[in-house]
Model the fold of this input.
Amino acid sequence: MSTTDLKEQLINKIQETDDKALLEELSVLFELQEPDTVYELNDEQKNKIKTGQEQIKSNQFLTDEEANKDVDQWLNK
Done:
């Protein structure tokens, strides 16, 4: 399928739909508007983030390479 054909199909689907949620998602995807979703964290989530930040400051973390090695060992690779 050519780029032109794909564009035409997308334009047709957009024109045919009345699904507001879908249109809003497309709008965000094409950066026509900023997402208006605000995520509220509960106390447990905030504490987990704080713990993670403290672990990073004290170098208590794995590199990507170390984590992948551990996963491979757990999966017996």
Remarks:
- Helices lie at 3-16, 20-29, 43-57, 64-74.
- The chain has two domains: 1-37, 43-74.
- The mean pLDDT is 90.
